[in-house]
Design brief:
Two copies of one chain form a homodimer. Chain A is an alpha/beta fold and 552 residues long. Chain A has two domains: 270 residues, Aldehyde Dehydrogenase, Chain A, domain 1, CATH 3.40.605; 192 residues, Aldehyde Dehydrogenase, Chain A, domain 2 (3-Layer(aba) Sandwich), CATH 3.40.309.10.
Amino acid sequence: MGEALPTEITGRPFGVSLIAGERADTQDVQFDSITQASGATLQPTYTAASPAQVSEAARKAWSAFHAAGLMPPSQHAALLRPCADGIDAIGEPLVALASAETAIEPARLNAELARTTGTLRMFADVVEEGSWVDAIIDRPGAEGRPSSRQALRRMLRPLGPVAVFGASNFPLAYSTAGTDTASALAAGCPVIVKGHPLHPGTGEVVAQAIAASVLETGFPAGWFSFLHAGGGREQEIGEELVKHPCVRAAGFTGSRTGGDALTRIGLSRPDPIPVYAEMGSVNPVIVLPGALASEPEKIARRVAQSLAAAVGQQCTCPGLIFLIDGEGSDMFTKAMSAELELIEAGVMLAPRIQANYTRTVRELLALEEIKVLFGTDRVPAPPPPGKKEVAGPAMAAPMLLSVAGEHFRQHAEFLNEMFGPCALVVQCQNEQELFSCVTAFVGSLTGSLFVGDADVDRAPPFARALEQRCGRLIFNGVPTGVEVAWAMVHGGPYPASNRPDTSAVGPTAMKRWRRPVCYQNYPANLLPPELRDENPLGIERRVDGTLTREPV
Amino acid sequence: MGEALPTEITGRPFGVSLIAGERADTQDVQFDSITQASGATLQPTYTAASPAQVSEAARKAWSAFHAAGLMPPSQHAALLRPCADGIDAIGEPLVALASAETAIEPARLNAELARTTGTLRMFADVVEEGSWVDAIIDRPGAEGRPSSRQALRRMLRPLGPVAVFGASNFPLAYSTAGTDTASALAAGCPVIVKGHPLHPGTGEVVAQAIAASVLETGFPAGWFSFLHAGGGREQEIGEELVKHPCVRAAGFTGSRTGGDALTRIGLSRPDPIPVYAEMGSVNPVIVLPGALASEPEKIARRVAQSLAAAVGQQCTCPGLIFLIDGEGSDMFTKAMSAELELIEAGVMLAPRIQANYTRTVRELLALEEIKVLFGTDRVPAPPPPGKKEVAGPAMAAPMLLSVAGEHFRQHAEFLNEMFGPCALVVQCQNEQELFSCVTAFVGSLTGSLFVGDADVDRAPPFARALEQRCGRLIFNGVPTGVEVAWAMVHGGPYPASNRPDTSAVGPTAMKRWRRPVCYQNYPANLLPPELRDENPLGIERRVDGTLTREPV
């Protein structure tokens, strides 16, 4: 093992993985981090974790989990707050580095930073309050329960070490210290982060803050590790992690291809593990005729801004817009085009992401059913001959395409996420065709319904269709802007996620890393503190039969 | 479509499927139900559902689900109670028929009947109380929440039509009106039951009671269908159901092969659906040295009775018993053998089940590491030459095998469920070997730990090992006897189930048929009643930030 980790957080990356509180040795496979706005190579060079290092991180997480034993929830809360403080303390260099690595503006990254540390602190509060573990105690002789039965106690218990795969588009909030990591730590699970090759420095610097907090709060050092992944090792490291016997669950945010592959690996183990994958989403926006009649231009401007935000690289980007043809829809598409025209090209997260976007858009344009409503001069150019991607900064400017409702159900490609600043307007002849088009997609993170006064009787079936297909339904609003709140659902039927019964944002995300265990006739000393008769944490608990709540 | 279903419940089967309240037409594929105790064929002959009938049931369930719209929970509760009453009303002929079809004694079936109707009534209470839907309302301006944000409301919403695959060993409690059906109806989902070919008459008679209740309570007739499956169509019907676009989830209780196959089908759809499979289980019993020293014979007798119950055909049958060699373990195995000797051979559920059991036991006996502790004269005989199974009543008598701890980890077969009245005692040299053996299995419905006064310091690591591998942990008790209670967990890591985050027994089983949906800025008329400001149901709701509960 390499050099010991300084407990101070340096705010700068060293280019090596952090395994159980120590800087790992350099390995053969190396890769660079790039300043996306200029194409310039950043220092240092990064070294991808070796198979032995992956295994070491997993085994140390396992040992740490077992060494920890029955911890009171307060201990997990105590880990989350220093993580937040540590990350806040290096906010300035962190945002500068993340902005260089991802081409995301510092202003947006500062908001993302606040959201990231805010989530860590919110989860600490939730863990201390304690009711999220769904503790239920059925005592013999409680009302409605025969006294001859044995006491049954149940609560959610931690799964063990969790592997986290962060996303390229939120280098802070869905990455090293993002909701997956925060929720797993809050749930009492050690975490191993696979670093993202598009922001390795950002990841390593955040990892320093978490690793320092682990040591500072007395957790076993193996409770957290960060593995650099890149240089051709990225996919292998993911597979090694999800196959490792010591890894008990995984969280993934990214492409459908990646999420599907990891899900399959997790399921095909002799002891299958859950992989929670949040993947692509088309985020349909339905603008009903009454809304188009009353304020088409105002709605169009909001949708345009939502589409163009973050150069269209948000998982909640509105990719499909459903309208019924008429005066209102003309005003809508013209206003949306006019608004998009004001927005210039932005630098995308990476040339490889821009190359995917370019291919997707050009494939659509090759179909005769597709028209360009706005942006004929903004069609992204294919990479130069012999190249997979453009060399320089990878730019994209917002565009708007359209397809007639009668053609919409003919090509499955229309249902794919573009992951860039381009939306497809589906222009329908009438309400029946609109309904048929809306029911073509199967799963999305969000669904937006714009409803005017004249739409009162029209709205319910559309709301119902969205409810069956989306995790979050928005009334008269755009999909971007995911609030960290108890009531949030960030998930939805496939392909939005592979586990629509869960959320990747908000406190309920913590439940993913636990499963219920029932203790029958158990003595106090073997029970988790939450389930003991004396209820030292004052947690609200449900008893059987009467279904009343017992504040004890 | 055939004859209309009489609203009175006949208590006798007609041999045809019940689709949306009507008796389906007879089809080509026919099969018989057998009196297991005698091998005699029962009347009538049964007709397996055709592919068109499967599709019809699924489409009618889908239409019913959509026609129902936003129902108040009281309506679902109102369906469950007449189902229970209807089944109770035909209890006598039902138990007689089920006993003939399954060879289970009437006394046990009467208890199972009470449990089945008790579950339906308990779920009705739970639905009316309402808190199980995890309703959360984040209002703008609530404490800890900025007033500029839009209201977010979240609750569990129904998935749609559910396909139910019941088990052979509980013809009432895990079959047509078992927990899967009861919980899906309670959750507001239409149900299509695939009848079990080992008790088709029992299934059809119970289905009559449910179908009559559906009509009586004003639900669309498609809310419930029952499809006979047998005569070579059994597997096909299962596949057709899980592949059908109108089926949105499935519940399965049975073999690992069946559960794995349906799970794969559900996942490989273009729109994957969850299949909740409760499969085989070994139910390890660990008897620590202090317990062996204090009351070896008493524990041995309890474990023997648990093993022999229902001819070893319960999913919680104790299949692996872990001991440390010594005087206590000798007394234990002798007392267990003596107790088993008092128990005579019983009729198994079917010749095909006995044939599987026979093959499993004989494969174990072929291994030189296996010794017979009790029952050398009870080794089941293989089927006659050229036959797959015995002809007459399929009998089995309890047996006890043993293997040395040092050999236990050498054969994966030792971890397989035998599904019959035979257990394997793992005889270890010391505590370290015991721990190593206990950690060999990966998932089980239950784990039992017998602990004596002298075991206080020894118990925690064993309890922890069981906690990571089991759904329910029993202290000084046997695994059989699953209580229907809020705190119950009937599930566990694979292969016990494919979804260890759920339970197949108790009110929490209802959550499997719903997923969370978040409503942002939604108007009252489009919201489910549970989430409206006026809170007509008086449901407790959580607000963001403070995490307090708001009784409204």
